[in-house]
Amino acid sequence: MIRSLLIIIGIMMACPVVASVKQQSSYSFLDNRLLSHIEKTRSLFIPAGSAGFAKYLRYTKDKIPFKLQQMQGKWFVATMNTNAAALYIPMIRAVGEINMRIKLYVNVPGRMTVRINGKNLPAQPIINGWNELVIHSTKMGFKQGDNEIILFASPKSNPEIAWFMVGSEPTMDPINDILTEKPFYNKTSNQWIFSEKWGARYYISIPKQASIIASGLKDGCSLVLSGKTDDGTVLSGLLTSENTSLSLSSLADRAAWIRFSVQGCSVMELSTLDIMTPSIEKTISKAKRPSHVLFWIMDSLRADKIASFYKTKPKTFLPDTPVFDQLAQHSAIFLNAYVQGNESRASHASIWASLYPVTHDMFSRKTILADRWVTLDEVAKEAGLFVSGVSGNGYIIARRGFGKSWDFYRNHIHSKSGLSGKSIMNAGIASLTNKNTQPWFLYLGTIDTHVSWRAKEPWFSQYDNAPYKGSFVKYASGVDIGKIATGKMSITKRDIQRIRALYDSNVSYQDKLLGDMLTKLTQWKIRDKTMIIITADHGDELWESKRVGHGGSLKETVVHVPLLVHYPPIFPTTKIEQAVESIDILPTLADVLDVPLDINWQGVSLVALAQGKHGTYPTLAMSSQYESKHSARMGDFKLHIQGGRSPKLYHVKTDRLEKKNIAKTHHIALRMVSDPLWLLRTYNRHWKKSRWGNAANMFAHCARDFGE
Q: Which of 303, 419, 617, 665 could form a Cys-Cys staple with 309, CB 3.0–4.6 A?
C-alpha cells in the first residue's frame, strides 16, 4: 500500500500542471542559495569559505568557532578561531562507511584529529601550506540527521579550511580550482549551474497548492527532482521544458529535503527555479495615510488567551474578549507574532528601535537604549504628529532611551499615578484634549496582565466561582509570585487555578478598555482615520511548564504575542500565518506614515505581507533569552537552541505547550528551521530584513551582498 502511494505521488509530480489561477513566486531557490547544500556525485560538498557555511555551525552567544569568508591565496576559507572547532552536517540516510576529504592550509606543521559523533579517528599529519586530508573508516559511520564533526589541530597551526566533502563513496577526482570557478553558480549571469556531477539539496517547507517551475531548460535535458519527508514519503519527478511544473500539493504543510540534479545533458543553466503558489494579493482601496495612530502595548498579554489569534477557535476555555473579536473582523491579524526578548527591557527596545537584542544589548538594569537609534516617537514626530505617551512599565522612560520626541509623556510608576489600565488610558485621552482632531500618535502601555495581578470584575467571579481559602483571594502580588518562581513559597493546584483566573480577568478587563477607547475615537469622529496597533512585549508562563512569569524561558506562553493592525485603507481583513517579529512594527509605522526607513532598522514593513505580496512560504521569527538561548518559529515548527547542546524541536501547531520534543524523529524539519536560524544567528548584527529578506526566504540582495 505504501509503495503504491509513493509511485502515485511520483507520477503526479511528473505531470504538467495547467495553472487555472494566477500564480506568484513564493520562494526562489536561487535567491536562497546560502541555504543550499551542494552535492558532488551525491556526496555533500561544503565550501567553508562561503557565507552559507554558517548553517553548519553551533556555538554559544557570539563565540563563533570559525572566522568566516577569509582569503588564502585564491581560495575562500574559514579560519579556525581556536585549536578545536565543530560543525554539524546533515545526512539524509545512515552511512556505514566514512569517507571524508578536507582541503586546508596551515602555516605551522602539526597534526589534525577528526572526531565524528564523539569518536576520534586516527590523527593525520599536516604540512606547512596546503593539505588535502583523506579520511576513511569502516568502523563507524554517519547517522541520519545531524552529525557532529570536531576538528582538533596542533597549537598555533590556525587551520584555514577551504572545503569538506563527505559521502559513502565520494569521488577522488581532483577538485582543482572549484571555489574560484564557482561551477554551481554564475554570479555574472545569475544562474544556477547543475551538471552531471554537481547538484544541490534544500531543506524546505512545502506550502499549500505549491509547484516548482524553472527557466533555462533545454530540449533533451531534464531537471531531476527527488526528496523525502519526515514521514517517509518519497518525492520524484522531472522538469523537461519551460511549460511544465511539478506539483507539490500532496505534500503541503510538511518539511522535505529536495535534491536537484541533471539528466540527459552534461550542464544545465537555470535563471529561475521557484516555488509557485496561487496569488493571494489583496485588492484594497487607494491608500491614504492615517491622521492618527493608537499604539497599545498590553504588557504580559499572551496570544493564546485571545480567540482572535487562533485560526480556528479552540474548545478549551478562553477569557471573554468581545471587543478584540469584533475588531479582528476588520483587521490584519498576525497569528504568529514573536517578541525578540523574553522580558520587558530587551523586548521593548526591539520594538522601539527595530533592532535584535544582540544589536541594542538592552539586558541589564543599567543599560540605556543608545541615542543613535531612531525610535517610534521620532518617526511619529517626523510624520508631523502630536506625540503623546503614557505607560505603567517602569523601564519605559526617556532617560533609558525610550523617547526623545515626546510632546507629552508620563510614566505612572515614576509619577506615582494610578497603575490601572483605566488610569493610563484616561491620562492618554486627557493628553489629547483640544488636540483630538489634529494628527496625533498615542502610545499606551498598560500593565494589568503583568504582575501584580488584581481581580477584575465581573469577569473574575465568572472565571473562578468555586470556594477558595488560600493566599490569593483577589490579589497575587509580584513579591509572592517572585517567591513562588524561586521556590521560596509553596503553592497548591488550587492556588494555580485561582491565579490563572486573576490573570484571565485582566485579559477581559483590557478588552473592555479597548472598547472604551474605540468609543472615544467614535465620539471624536476620527475612528476611520486612526490606525490601531495592539501587541505585547511578552507573555507569562502560568505553570504550564512548572514556571511562572517571564524571563525564564522561550516557551510559546512567553514569546508568542498578539499583533493586530487595524486600518482598512492599507491593511485588508486577513489572518496571516507567516511568522513575524516585533522589530517589524516600527518599519510598518514608518511605511504607513511615509517616513523613510532608517538604515539601521533590522525589521521590515508588514504592509506587503498583509496585502499578500510575498506568497505563502513560511518565514522565520527568532526570540532571544539574554543571547544565551534562542528559539525560532517557522511554519508549524519551533526550535530551541543553546549553543552546541542538543536542539529541541516542537510541532507547535498541535503541541502548543511544547511538551513533546521531536528533534530525534524529525530530522528534516529540524534542519529546515536550523539552517536559516544559524544563518541569522551568525550575521544577526548585520541582518536587515528590508534588504536581505527573511532568513528562511531571502531576497536576491542577500547572497549578492555576501559576494556570492
A: 303
